[in-house]
Amino acid sequence: MKTNILLFISAILLSVSTLTPSLAQPIFTDASRSNRERAEDIVKHMTLREKVSLMVYDSPAVERLGIKKYNWWNEALHGIARNGNATVFPMPIAMASSFDAELLEEVFTATSDEGRIKWNIARSSNDENMWYKGLSYWTPNINIFRDPRWGRGMETYGEDPYLTSQLGMAVVRGLQGDNKDGVIKALACAKHYAIHSGPESSRHSFDAVVSERDLWETYLPAFKDLITKADVKQVMFAYNRMFGVPAGANERFMRDILEKEWGFKGVVVSDCWAVKDFYAGHKWSANRVEAAAAAVNAGMDMECGDAVPAIPEAIRRGLVTEESVDESITRVMEYRYLLGEMDETSPWDDIPHDKLCSKEHADLALEVAHKSIVLLENKGILPLKKSEKVLIMGPNADQARMMWGNYNGYPLNESSLLDGIKAKGVNINYVDGIPYVAGLTTTDVTGDVVMKAAFNPDNKEFDIEKYVAAAKEYKTVIFAGGLASCLEGEQLEVSAPGFDGGDRTTLSLPDVQKRVIKALHDAGKRVILVNFSGSAMAFKDEAKWCDAIVQAWYLGQEGGKAIADVIYGDVNPSGKLPLTFYADDSQLVDFEDYSMKGRTYRYFEGKPLYPFGHGLSYTTFKFGKAQIAKTANGDKALVINVRNTGKCDGEEVVQLYISRPDDSEGPIKTLRGFKRIALKAGEETQVCIPLNDETFLWWNPESGRMNPMEGEYTLHYGNTSDSKSLKTIKYRFAK
User: Fold this and answer.
1) Alpha-carbon distance 696 to 700, whole Å?
2) What CATH class has 621-733?
3) pTM over 0.85
4) Strand 374-378 to 428-430 pairing
5) Sign of the C-alpha dihedral, residues 556, 560, 566, 570?
6) CA angle, 376 then 164 then 339, to 5°
7) Among residues 563, 500, 557, which one has the least CA distance to residue 528?
8) Which tens digits make up the pLDDT trace of 639-691?
9) Spans of all domains in the chain
10) What is the structure's pLDDT at 130?
11) N or C: which end of the chain has fewer CB within 10 A?
């Protein structure tokens, strides 16, 4: 009898708990539980329709579960972008010239501070339009800038896998911050996985096929490092196919490599409308339903696009299971909890709002701009004396907004080169009217009419003699030339010679600019070319005509001041090229060929005009003979004494390259260490660069991977990749 009564009471209690689940706190509302536990629980309460809706970048609210509207599409390429006022730092290709990972981590710590401030403001004001206001940033772009004609190369960190990896990890560390009580500051994203670097015009249909060596030696190292070492929380797959299969449906890359081999547990996101390309561009799948199923089956968790809503139909047709959807939406929700976005408060709420567009961040933008400027050529003219009478001209002389690049924010203050020079109080005059390209009008490009002053809307024959005559009373002319983000960039429409869909068809400076420079030279003027571009230029002619060439990239809000500081010697230039500047177009190979043969300093056997790692200074540095020594912890290092032998203070980037003499098919040399140092005139320091397993990662045909390979190596060290300027030492590596 007693047993029956107990059973009856148990049944009653079970019935009550089933009928009134609100009496027990759901796990997903319990902040003491892990993010994963909360995500798994909340997914159990969702309908299939709700699950699918939350796998789209513009995720709606699910009010009954306390889920707010959230937009995953946010940009922070070089500062918070497309979300009002923010500090605008130099473009990534410029920051790469600093060869300074610690500085980049500072930049992206400042960026994520501003992002959190903007998020807190939007949340507190119940802003319904969350596009570009969230905390999941689709940054950094770590594709290899293998061909200088690619328009989006300015978004990358150059042509070298090691440099890209080191700087990319710094970006991730800065953006994501520390984990505070289970909450991180933001989500970074490694993109565009995995073999992607143009052409822009065919990115929705081309197939990237490479050797296994090129794949693991060049295209994958940065992705691997960001995932396995920096713990990046998002990966975005590319538009194109890889080995015949769209990147986002390629199970070898998405499941076997990304998930199983590298252990990636974060959110896989599509590039925008890349899933549509499965059927519309690549003709690989028949329709939207099949494309959506293939993407989810391969591991996509979040789509920027409109294919995922077809998932219920795909489930009904047996193309994908709801369990696969559960796997993806659980990850999505886990990372929303990780951001603290699902709760009312987070440990990141107390960042002072006055950090947004602060002087502190402006000073940081100026510092990185200073270190990004590369002095390519100097025949003794720089630095200019402030007493000298100078004329400035060229399409970029009075263009401040041009220096914002692309994927940009909007600074409170900005500075053109003309502004920066005028602020020096020097004797400068300006003559305007020189276009980027003769005959180019603002209707020939995608937007960006802010730079209309540098176009020639009348389409008339350009009068070069007018500018030669204007320079008659001047010994020195600063020509501010080059390109702009309305001419090179992501899938643009540009109707002008030398440009195609955002890419370039030639590395030469546009003809009208070349003719003005030559005419000034022929008239006996000393010409200083300040070139603005996001990519390499071919300056074979200009190197003969100009007394100095300054590579100014797109330097952000402080660009004009930074360049003026360098031109007049208030700052000693110290930037180094993160990509090869070829002499002319004849040194380039087929743009659509993804083989590394003949590409970049690692495999190019010709003589570039300015090599990777090149950059001049106003002082000189002497490198002593390197020694192999043991460090305090017992590891080995290359130890080099470096002295500033000039008359002014300066900064130098010590570079270590390695080569393997017995590998005839391997790279000529490849970067494996660098260190930026600052030395006063006459000062000497000792630089130690570690020699460890990571230094000697080399292609192993037996494993089909990059492994620490024992054997004989040559260590090349100096301040450039140019073999004639490097010192060498033989070294045998043994594990």
Assistant:
1) 11
2) mainly beta
3) yes
4) unpaired
5) negative
6) 130
7) 563
8) 999 999 999 999 999 999 999 999 999 999 999 999 999 999 999 999 999 99
9) 41-341, 355-603, 621-733
10) 87
11) N
